Amino acid sequence: MSKNKDNVIALNSPAIQKTETPKDLLTDVIKQGAQTLLAAAIGAEVDEFMQKYEEEKDKEGRQRFVRNGYLPERNIQTGIGNVPVKAPRVNDRNRQDDGIGFTSSIVPKYMRRSQSIEELLPLLYLNGVSSPNFKETLAPLLGENAKNLSPNVICSLKATWTQEQERWAKRDLSDKKYVYWWADGIYLKARMDDAKACVLVIIGVTETGEKELLTMQTGIRESKESWKDVLQDLQAQGLKIAPKLAMGDGALGFWGAMTEIFPTTQHQRCWFHKTGNVLNKLPKSLQGKAKVELREIWMQPTRKDANTLIKRFVNRYKAKYPKAASCLERDKEKLLAFYDFPAEHWIHLRTTNPIESVFATVRHRTYKGKGCYSRKTILAMVFKLCENAQKRWIRLKGANLLAKVMNGAQFIDGVIVDGEESIDSSDKEAA
C-alpha cells in the first residue's frame, strides 16, 4: 500500500509536472501499431514474391531473387501523422528488364502520402487554405515536423494535378463504348473566376459494368451551348457510339444538346430531382404524404402500373395544386424510360445518384474563400478528388446484360423481349 501511495505522490509532485512534456500517448501507440502492421504486411508481400519466383535461376544456377537488407527508411504521411516505413530490398541477380521485380503494392516506390492525405490536400485548397498555410493547418494531423508540405511543394503539386487533368481531358476515346451516362451540372461553393460557371460532369458505364468519369468541363449555368461544347469535345476525342440511355435532372440545356448531338439516346429524368421539384409546389403539410406516393410510382413493376399511379396523383392534386400535378405529368415519359432496360439496372437508372454521391464531399466541404479560383485550378482540384473517388466505385449490378443492351436487345418492363433469361450461362455455372 505504502509503495503505491509513494508512486502517486511522486507522479503528482511539482518537479515532475514541470519537467515532463505532455504527450499524446494514444496517438503514439497507434503509430507504433501502424508501423508494426505495415512492416508485417510488406514482409508478407516479399514472402509471397519470393515463393512465387523461387524456381527462377540466374546464369550460374543460383536463385535469381535474393533479399538484401532494407531500403532507406522514409516517412509516409497519414491521417495519424508520419509513419516510418522500412521496405525490404530484393535484388535481381540477372538484372533483366523483363517486368519481373518486387514492388510493394501497399507502399509503392515513390509514395509519400496516403490516399486520405491525397484527397485532403485539394479539399483544403478549395476550402480557401493558401499554399503557405498548409503546413500550419495540417500540423495537428501530421505533426509539427511534417515534411513535403512547403509552399513550393504545394505549388508543384497543383501544377502536376493541372497537367494530369489536361492530359486526361485529351485522351483517346475511339475504342470506348458507354451503355449509360449520368450527367449533371455541379455548382461548388468555392467560387470560380466567372460567378455563373459550374462544372459539367458525365459519368459513363462500360459494357463490363465499370463506372468511369467520362468528362468534366466548366460551363455557363448548364446552357445548351455549354453542353454542346462538352459533347462535341467527346466526339473530337474519338467517341463515336452514343449511349443507349442518359440520366439527368431538369436542365433543358443538356437534353437539348443530347437531342442534337446524340439523337438516338433515350432520356431518363432523375426521380430524386423530380420529387423535389413536385414537393416544392405543395404545402409542407402535404409533402410527406406526396413523397410516399411519388416513391410508389417508380417502384412499380410495370410501366402500366406506374402510369396508373401517375394519373391518380395528378387527379388528386390538380384541382388545388395544378403546378405540382403539371410538373409530374409533363415529364412522365422521360421519368419512365428505365422500363425499357433490364430490371437489374433500374436501381442505377432512376436517379443521378452516381454523380450526386461523388460530388457530395466536394459540395459540402468547399466554401467561398476571400478570393476566387481560375477554371484550371477548379478543374485540377475536382479532378484529383474524382480520381480518388473512382477507385471506390462499385460495378453495376447485372453487368452481364450490358452487352445485350448495347447490341440493341429490346426490354419490356425490365424483361428481354426475345425470352432470353437475364442470367448468362456462365453466371448460372458460377451460381
Structure explained in plain terms:
With 431 residues, the protein is α+β, with helices and mostly antiparallel strands. It is built from 18 helices and eleven strands. The chain folds into two domains: 25-112, no CATH class; 176-390, Nucleotidyltransferase, domain 5 (2-Layer Sandwich). Strands 7-6-5-8-9 form a five-stranded mixed sheet, with helices on both faces. A two-stranded antiparallel ribbon has the order 1-4. It has a two-stranded antiparallel ribbon with strand order 2-3. Residues 1-23, 364-371 and 421-431 have low confidence and may be disordered.
Give a short overview:
With 431 residues, this protein is α+β, with helices and mostly antiparallel strands. It has two domains: 25-112, no CATH class; 176-390, Nucleotidyltransferase, domain 5 (2-Layer Sandwich).
